[in-house]
Specification:
heterodimer, A: 410 residues, mainly alpha, two-stranded antiparallel ribbon, 6 strands, elongated, B: 290 residues, alpha/beta, Rossmann fold, six-stranded mixed sheet, 29% strand
Chain lengths: 410, 290
């Protein structure tokens, strides 16, 4: 345990680590502040307020709409919306809803958006004013409309060319596999933590790579390797403790950062809405998860990716004996496939590139897009592929790192 | 006993250490040689940091590479380039090394305190090593080397970069610690080993040229070390044709101490050879280049 303690201290107390972790804390707090003050609430007089007060007001405004989103509730939303848009005192000089009018709409804005996406003619159409053209009677068969829209989209030429028969069947099965009616309550906090996670996970993985880059190479760079390897336990127990220290430190940094960022946002926005289904937010989504479950899944995928990059960084530190090389290579391994994925149009190569570690950072995107893998006749979600793949990769790096450093001649 | 049995280390076609045979028992051994003689390579092989290309190193009859942890448990090593962790304090550094040496909690703490006192660093125990002077770092280095009370203590150029006062202090420290263990101390500073080593090993071009106590080694040069007062021109000639151990400007000319089998000048007087003279005899050209 003493060796473990000092191995952690060696990595933590390096100047680059202190700077990197300091940056990460600032990033987490800065993102939170950005998200808290990025949201706003329109008051009855049309003025906007931001920050935590806005979040509290918004929650109060959305509270009356909490509960199961039945056809009656949908009808009520359409009715309220119509009343608002028919009231001249809420229409601005441009003919659209004024800020005072919007202040009365924001309470059912989430449900209004759900109605807009449900009643669109096809996936490529989104009209913010769809709800304005409906009547309460249109609420009948609300949940049946999804199937028709999906079937129309799945038969399009471009979709047939993009997705195999098996993938289209998978999409249809999972997108329509949703428990109805939806449950709804104010869930802004969960919305924001999910959105924030993409940037935060990315930043955390980079920082972890910086912190771990010196785990093995520092022995060589400080010329302490001769004494280290001449001791009784240096070659075996010492190496094992280095690897353990790396993973422990990465785990603490990752979960510490995620809990800090998510904790601040959920404190500001409240934890309400954890049981709201993700498909209420992402109409096309494939995953029957609640907001809280989706958040945990994104974090878990990010954590596994983080472990994978930790293993890889330590391996490079052990192999190349240079923190600088380890950091640069880690950065390239994350960034090059990520950038290449944007430029590649061939779906096969896109899928291959998304297997790289950056794919584990994209958990939020997977909720909203159709990234799928097919092996033989079976289709898998990225969660089903990336998680075991990167767990396996992490495990494989361990003995390579261990023996690579053990064989090193100081 | 530490046996170095026909050990060689080859890097490509170059022999850094060539067919070294040594048997070391308890006592202080001074490994004397110029830079590049192979001292560090030999010591690294003794410390299992390098594998010999040929031959074997055994301790108490067991090959050290096979013994592994069991051998390194009785080993203490201070390398020439003493690397440390700048963010550690002296106390933390010793506790970390103690843990790597397999020493348990309270014993490690007690030994750390004891050694910090021994090397006169007890007041600097909480200070970061990066803020230490060269002498303090060296003392910390010797402290970590003897933490586990090793049976074999290998010190590679331990006084490099130290001022004369620190060197004497270091020498006394080593002398104190030398009882009941094998101490192998490499240096190219003769005075480091002259007064404390039981046996001197002279290493050149990867080979042990000669070995023995100070008296035996200086005895090899008996009748070959001369002192003579010369003019500038004579001194210039002598420096080209003989190994000059010392040159001192005196009233009447230049007093040279030089090595020669025959009397080099009419007024030359034979003197008692010193270990430094022995060093110059073996390394004269290399020493001039340095």
């Amino acid at each position: 345990m003493t060796i473990l303690k000092f191995e952690i201290k060696k990595m933590l107390c390096a100047k680059t680590s202190i700077a990197a972790i300091g940056f990460l804390i600032l990033l987490a707090v800065g993102l939170c502040i950005g998200y808290i003050y990025g949201g706003y609430y329109v008051q009855e007089d049309g003025s906007k307020i931001r920050g935590i007060k806005a979040a509290v007001k918004m929650q109060e405004a959305k509270e009356p709409w909490e509960g199961m989103v039945t056809e009656e509730v949908v009808a009520r939303v359409i009715e309220e919306n119509n009343k608002l848009h028919a009231n001249p005192s809420y229409i601005g000089t441009d003919g659209w809803l004024s800020d005072e009018g919007y202040s009365r709409q924001q309470g059912f804005e989430d449900l209004r958006n759900l109605i807009n996406v449900t009643y669109r003619k096809s996936f490529s159409d989104y009209d913010y004013y769809t709800c304005d053209r409906l009547s309460p009677d249109d609420a009948t068969g609300f949940y049946d409309k999804k199937e028709a829209v999906f079937d129309e989209w799945l038969e399009r030429e471009e979709v047939i060319q993009t997705f195999s028969d098996e993938k289209r069947a998978y999409i249809r099965e999972h997108a329509l596999n949703v428990e109805t009616p939806y449950y709804y309550e104010y869930y802004d906090g969960w919305k924001k933590v999910k959105e924030m996670n993409l940037t935060l996970v990315f930043g955390t993985v980079i920082v972890i790579c910086i912190v771990l880059a010196g785990n093995f190479s520092a022995e060589c760079q400080t010329k302490a390797d001769a004494i280290y390897f001449s001791t009784c336990l240096g070659k075996k127990t010492g190496n094992k403790m280095k690897i353990a220290a790396g993973f422990i430190l990465a785990t603490v940094i990752y979960w510490g950062t995620m809990l800090l960022g998510s904790g601040i946002l959920l404190l500001a926005y409240s934890t309400s809405g954890g049981t709201v289904p993700v498909q209420l937010e992402f109409y096309k989504g494939l995953y029957s998860l609640t907001q809280a479950q989706a958040w945990i899944l994104i974090l878990l995928l990010g954590y596994i990716g983080c472990m994978s990059m930790s293993g890889l960084t330590m391996l490079m530190s052990s192999k190349f004996k240079s923190s600088f090389v380890a950091i640069i290579l880690a950065f390239l391994i994350i960034m090059v496939p990520a950038i290449a994925t944007q430029s590649v149009y061939n779906s096969f190569w896109k899928d291959v590139l998304s297997l790289f570690p950056h794919g584990t950072i994209m958990g939020y995107d997977y909720l909203t897009t159709y990234v799928l893998y097919q092996f033989g006749g079976r289709v898998y979600s990225p969660f089903e592929i990336l998680m075991p793949l990167h767990v396996l990769f992490t495990i494989v790096t361990i003995p390579i790192t261990y023996y690579s450093f053990q064989k090193y001649k100081a | 006993m530490l046996e170095i049995d026909g050990v060689s280390k080859k890097f490509g076609d170059f022999y850094a250490v060539e067919h070294v045979h040594l048997q070391l028992e308890k006592g202080v051994y001074g490994l004397l040689g110029a830079n590049g003689a192979g001292k560090t390579t030999l010591m690294r092989m003794i410390c299992t940091l390098l594998n010999p290309t040929e031959g074997e190193i055994r301790y108490e009859g067991a090959p050290v590479l096979k013994a592994g942890e069991g051998y390194r448990k009785v080993l203490g090593y201070l390398p020439q380039d003493f690397g440390y962790y700048p963010q550690f304090s002296a106390e933390e550094y010793l506790l970390y090394i103690a843990a790597l040496k397999g020493m348990k909690g309270n014993y490690a703490k007690a030994r750390t305190r004891e050694l910090l006192q021994l090397v006169s660093l007890e007041k600097a125990g909480k200070k970061k090593v990066k803020n230490f002077s060269g002498g303090m770092k060296r003392r910390l280095g010797i402290a970590q080397a003897v933490l586990n009370d090793p049976e074999i203590l290998v010190l590679d150029e331990p006084t490099a970069g130290l001022d004369p006062k620190e060197r004497i202090r270091f020498r006394n420290l080593i002398s104190e610690m030398a009882e009941e263990r094998i101490v192998l101390l490499s240096t190219h500073i003769v005075s480091d080993v002259e007064n404390i080593a039981n046996k001197i090993l002279i290493m050149k071009n990867g080979k042990i040229q000669t070995a023995g106590g100070v008296e035996r080694l200086t005895g090899e040069l008996e009748g070959m070390v001369w002192k003579c007062l010369m003019t500038h021109e004579e001194a210039a000639y002598a420096e080209e044709h003989y190994t000059v151990c010392n040159r001192k400007k005196e009233e009447g000319g230049i007093m040279l101490t030089l090595i020669s089998k025959e009397k080099p000048a009419v007024n030359a007087k034979v003197v008692m050879p010193s270990l430094e003279d022995v060093y110059m005899y073996y390394f004269g050209e290399e020493a001039e280049e340095e």
